[in-house]
Design brief:
The complex is a heterodimer of chains A (257) and B (296).
Chain A: E1 20-29, E2 32-42, E3 47-51, H1 58-65, E4 73-78, H2 83-86, E5 90-93, H3 107-112, H4 116-119, H5 127-139, H6 155-168, E6 173-177, H7 185-200, E7 204-208, H8 215-218, E8 221-226, E9 228-234, H9 235-238, H10 241-248
Parallel strand pairs in A: 3-7, 3-8, 5-6, 6-7
Antiparallel strand pairs in A: 1-2, 1-4, 8-9
Chain B: H1 9-34, H2 38-59, H3 64-88, H4 93-116, H5 121-124, H6 128-131, H7 139-158, H8 160-168, H9 170-175, H10 180-202, H11 207-221, H12 225-250, H13 255-273
Helix pairs in contact in B: 1-7, 1-10, 1-11, 1-12, 2-3, 2-4, 2-10, 2-11, 3-4, 3-10, 7-10, 10-11, 11-12, 11-13, 12-13
Classes of the chains: A alpha/beta (257), B mainly alpha (296).
Pfam family, one (chain B): ABC-3
Protein name (chain B): Manganese transport system membrane protein MntB
Subcellular location (chain B): Cell membrane
């Protein structure tokens, strides 16, 4: 098992240099390659979308960076360190459907989970942690629902809770898996404002995204993934019809209009 | 029939032991239920039988702690096999559970037949592990139950927030650096201990009722994990006392099945009549908001 890091205090800010460096990364599920020979580099302070068709390995890429999936080949450095050591600087937003929303917890309970890492073993969240959690809820416009049971939330509200939990983690790198899936327009605008705020604060944000139309509107960098990494870079440089066709096949014509 | 037995030390002993067993079962059953592992509890309790009989056959002892060590090891092995079969083959989890449950229980019954031929078998009273026999609890048994229960409650208190995030969102727990595998093993071990305690009172066949029924009942009355765990523990203890009471009062009724029936009765009542979640009120409610989504 990876060395256990469950820091008691706020970790120091990570050093300069690229946030993520991935070389020759290959991940297999059984005998099926999910990621194949991926070379990838993410500079600090970008707001990056990861796009690609279903089964392109987008979720797996995030999970590999977190050290939750073991690659069969290649190397990953996050803030210049192995994934397991870099976790203290990473906040994670799993797919909304990964959990059972009928779990007996309130909105505040869930957001407080973002503070657990700062507490260490045994200690309970205190007044400061509650304050930070409420602040995070205010950032996503949910503070009035802090004491609501999570089973009573709409899809958009569930996504906001997950993002608030990540905000409460106070990280340097945010990995978000489809935070815009199934949300209404208001929530989408609220969340994108939060992401822009993180970027303005010098944080790096990587978002698995499914809506190609909004990529140039919301993000400044983009990665086009389909098992192989087709292209990555500034949206203006790599979000082209040619690369999209290489990623999605001919269906990508939706964008040339 | 009178109620003089309420003052009887034997009755009080059995009631105390059953209450503790019910409380431990309810608390751990809450986590099993929320992690969708209720059936694992059933498989583990059935898988305990060969361990009990083997411990007797190998040592010839009828010492309860020793038999329960055998039960725990065997239940653990069953749980491990379920995990291995699920991960290493294309057999689905529910089939793996059914497989382990029936194979272990079958082996246990076969061994039991062998053990019955031993002259000391009747004394050892191995059949009581099938349906339980709370009435034969000894003071040192209840003391052992109390110690184990205290240990389980202490560990759950200490690792409360870790178990909470593990039950709600294991991927998030792993991503924040928690050793989810170790926590999972710890929680499963505590569940095995709870089952081992339940075996002598309720038996391998019905122990999972003591695990799942109080938790399912508690879920109906509250939306907070803290309250759910406490309530499930309380309802489990209530089932233990009520079961002991009824079986003593009516007489000639085996305590274990009556405890299981009490727990199930409380669960049934809660499923029907709890405010908001009860089936009796939810006929016209708009329904859940959960939806399946694509994975990328």
């Amino acid at each position: 098992m990876a060395p256990f890091l469950f820091a008691r205090r706020e970790p120091p800010a990570p050093g300069a240099g690229p946030v993520i460096e991935v070389t020759d990364l290959t991940v297999m599920y059984g005998d099926r390659p999910v990621l194949w020979d991926v070379d990838w580099e993410v500079p600090a302070g970008v707001l990056m979308a990861v796009v690609g068709p279903n089964g392109a390995g987008k979720t797996t890429l995030l999970r590999t960076i977190l050290g939750l999936v073991r690659p069969v080949a290649g190397s990953i450095a996050v803030f210049g360190r192995p994934p397991a050591e870099a976790r203290r600087w990473i906040a994670y937003v799993p797919q909304r459907t990964a959990v059972d929303w009928d779990f007996p917890a309130t909105v505040l309970d869930v957001v407080l989970m973002g503070r657990y890492r700062h507490l260490g073993w045994v200690r309970r969240p205190g007044a400061q942690d509650r304050e930070r959690a409420l602040e995070a809820l205010a950032q996503v416009g949910m503070v009035h629902l802090a004491h609501r049971q999570i089973g009573q939330l709409s899809v958009g509200q569930q996504q906001r809770v997950f993002v608030a939990r990540a905000l409460a983690q106070d990280a340097w790198l945010y990995l978000m898996d489809e935070p815009f899936a199934g949300v209404d327009a208001t929530t989408e605008q609220a969340l994108i404002e939060v992401l822009r705020g993180l970027k303005a604060a010098g944080r790096t944000v990587i978002v698995v995204h499914h809506d190609l139309q909004t990529v140039p509107l919301y993000f400044d960098w983009v990665t086009l993934l389909n098992v192989r990494c087709v292209a990555w870079g500034p949206v203006t440089a790599v979000f082209t019809a040619d690369y999209l066709r290489q990623t999605y096949g001919e269906r990508a014509s939706i964008l040339s209009g | 029939m009178g109620f003089g037995f309420l003052m009887d030390p034997t009755f009080r002993l059995v009631a105390t032991g059953s209450a503790l067993i019910g409380a431990v079962g309810g608390v751990l059953g809450t986590f099993a239920l929320l992690r969708r592992q209720s059936l694992l509890g059933d498989a583990m309790s059935h898988a305990a039988l060969p361990g009990i009989v083997l411990a007797f056959l190998l040592t010839g002892s009828r010492d309860l702690p020793l038999l329960l060590v055998g039960a725990s090891l065997s239940a653990w092995l069953g749980a491990l096999l379920v995990v291995l079969i699920t991960h290493r083959s294309r057999i689905r989890p529910d089939a793996a559970l059914g497989l382990v449950l029936s194979v272990f229980f079958g082996i246990g019954m076969a061994l039991l037949t062998v053990a019955q031929r031993r002259p000391t078998a009747a004394q050892a009273g191995l059949e009581r592990f099938l349906f339980g026999q709370a009435a034969v609890m000894l003071p040192q048994d209840v003391e052992g139950i109390a110690r184990t229960a205290a240990l389980i409650f202490l560990l759950i208190f200490l690792f409360w927030k870790e178990f909470k995030v593990l039950a709600f969102d294991p991927a998030f727990a792993a991503a924040m650096g928690l050793p989810v595998m170790a926590l999972d093993i710890l929680l499963t071990t505590l569940t095995v201990l709870a089952i081992a305690l339940g075996l002598q009172a309720v038996g391998v066949v019905l122990t999972s009722a003591v695990l799942v029924a109080p938790a399912a009942a508690a879920r109906q009355w509250t939306n907070r994990l803290e309250r759910m765990v406490i309530l499930a523990g309380g309802l489990g203890a209530l089932s233990g006392v009520l079961g002991t009471l009824l079986s003593t009062w009516i007489g000639r009724l085996p305590t274990g099945p009556v405890i299981a029936l009490c727990a199930s009765g409380i669960a049934l009542f809660s499923l029907l009549f709890a405010p908001r979640r009860g089936l009796a009120w939810t006929v016209k409610s708009p329904g859940g908001k959960r939806r399946a989504g694509p994975s990328g």
